[in-house]
Structures are given as structure tokens and as C-alpha cells.
Amino acid sequence: MLGYYLKDELLKGTFNIASDYINLNEWMSNSESSAPANDTTTLSVIEIPLNLDITLVSDIKKLLYDKHNITNVKGTIILRNGMAMMENVTMNMMDGTLRINGNYNPQNPKKPAIAMKMEIIDWDLLQTSQAFITVRKIAPILEKCLGKFSTTLDASGNLDQYMMPDLTTLSAYGLLKSKNVKVNNVDALSSLASQLKMDQYKSLSLANLNLSFDVANGRISVKPFETSLAGTTAKIQGSSGIDQSLDYTMNLAVPLSTMGSTAQAAAQGALSKLTGATGISVKLPDPVPVDVLIKGSMSKPIVTTNFKNTGKTVVETVKTEIKDKVKDQVDDGKAKARAEADKILADAAAKVKTLREAGYAAAEAARKQGYAAADKLVAEAKNPLAQIAAKKLLLNLKRNG
Q1: Is the dihedral of CA 256, 257, 262, 265 positive or negative?
Q2: What is the distance of C-alpha 275 from the center of its chain?
Q3: How many Å apart are CA 178 and CA 173, to the nearest integer?
Q4: What's the pTM value of the predicted model, to 2 decimals?
Q5: Distance CA 372, CA 304 (A)
Q6: Which stretch of DSSP H or E encloses residue 210?
Q7: Is 321 helix (H, G, I), strand (E, B) or coil?
Q8: Distance of CA 122 to CAs 1, 127, 132, 176, 177, Å?
Q9: What is the mean pLDDT of residues 264-276?
């Protein structure tokens, strides 16, 4: 220890830290300079001396960091080469559990670097949003959400001089799950409810969420995922930015039974033009496809609805019905032609039979006349030779029919 303090020698060892309470904020210097206006506690970069090679095995009952009360901190922290490496560090916070593996590198005190793999289990959404400025900036909608969530997250980037993430450098990807999330008082959803005349969209409950996301260039992007919104199947994807901008699409399949009567009447009125043009009764498909585009910002969203895919569905239905009608007409024509052909064949067969029977009768009469003539020759023969010749003729006639 003296060599470390007096001669700047390497301090190496393993320490077991067991404590009922540690205030980590006391390790950080306070500053009254240009601290972020929305942060009540001013933090500064924790520097790690290069001449440390220490393994800390921790078991801390309660830890205060910034404004976060953390309990049951366990795991290994290695201080080496001016960096802190966390190995299977677990703790309880936000009414759930956090497990971290990763490193913190403050060798550039103006831009400390982080690389973390985190597993969050059953954190409270509202508490998380209120506790972390980063979450509020990247995913502001979480301030309107109630429920628990779990996530796995791989993240890297830089911190600023106040130990806050520099969101322009943050890169991350992960998977978020939740059994149930309630969303209330979101302006974008209120606008959607107004356009569709469906008040149930103003307050939503999302069950069994399972979505992938990534963070890059100051935006969090949500990969396409499916869920149920007020009894409507929905496919959602898009992104939001640290500037609060929104860029989301929702593909809804709205059951007619849940669709507002005003919206149904308007859509059906537009489709009635197809009925006049095709002669086919055109009805709204069930469910009705509705595409929703959400732009603008959280405070001033711009929501547009599009029934183009509804039209496509109807057109395909009309095409199918027309094809079916043409096929039916062709089949009727084929049946009629087949019946006429069968009648012609039957008439021809009857005529052939009549002619054949007439021929048989004429042939029989000719045979009888031949037999009679031969009998007459036999009877009129005067000499034996003439009688023999006449009898042979009669026999040949009978043999040959």
C-alpha cells in the first residue's frame, strides 16, 4: 500500500466488499458549473488509476447512485488498466432485477466509453422513464405507459462529463417483452381514435409484447411486430428520435363489429360507386385494412389514415366475382352445346338403326325368293343329273345365307 501511495507503484489484490450501505455519489466531485438543467444531482467522471489491478467481490445491501436506491448488489468488479470491468453484477432496482456484464473506460475523461450487456427483468415502466433521462429522450412514450417489462440489451457508446450517455454515440440493440402494457393519454392515439370514430383507441392495453429494437444515430427503431389493439390485429414498426420526432406505421385489421358506424357508412358510400360500375354488390371486407402513418412529434403528432389497401381488397373481391360469373356463363354454354351434340348423335343413331332394320328385312325377303326358285328348279328337273345340280344349288344357297 505504501508503494502505491508514495511511489505510484502497482496495487494488486482481491478485496471482498460486504456493506449494508454505500453512497457512491460521495466518490464523485460536485460542480456548480454548466450542469444539465434537468438534473438535480451533478455528477462527474469517475477516474480509475492506471496503477490498480484489483478484483472487488461485492455484496452490498444498499447502494445510492445518483438518485437511484439500489439493493442487493452482488458480483465482481475488476479495476485494471484504468478501466472497470463488471462480471455478472446483479442488483435490484425499479421494482425488478438488473444483471450487467461489460466495461467502463474513463481514460478519456471528456468522453468515457461504455460497452454493456444488460438483462433487465420485471422493471416498472413508469419508474424507469422517470428515473432515466436517456429513456425519456429516446422513448418518450414510456411516460404514458403502465406495466412491467423485461429486456436484453447490448449497448456501447460514450458518456459526457456528467456521466450521462451521449445519445449521438449510443449504439444498441435488444429485445423487449411485456405481459401487459397500458397506454393512456397519448396524443397520437387520441387523433387516431377521432379519425376512425373509435374511442377505444384512446386508452389501449397491449398483451404479450415481444419486439426487437435498435438504437443508432440518436434514434430508436422498432422492428415490425404484431399485437392486438382494442380487439384489432396490428402490425407496428418505426422509430423515434432524441429530438422527440416520430416516424411510425401501423397496419390495422379492424373488425366491422368494432368499427364506428360513421366510418363504416363513409367507407361503404365510397365503395357503392363500384357497384354501379360493375353490377356487383360491393361490401366492406371484414376485417377492414387500415394503414396508419404517425409523423410529427410526441407533443404535436401528425396522424393520417389510409384505406388504400381496403380498396385493393375490394378490387380483388370484385375481380374474383367477375371471374366466377364468366366461368359460370362459360360452363352454361358448354352444357348447352354438349346437350345439342348428344341430341344430334341420338337422332343419327336412331336413323342408322332404322336403315339397318330395313336392310335386314330386304335381305330376308331375297333369301326366301332364292330358296323358292331353287326348290322350283329341283321340282322341274327331268333327269337325274339336272336334279343333282339343282339340289347342290339349293344347298349352297342355304349354306351362304
Answers
A1: positive
A2: 33
A3: 17
A4: 0.68
A5: 108
A6: strand 203-216
A7: helix
A8: 43, 12, 16, 11, 9
A9: 63
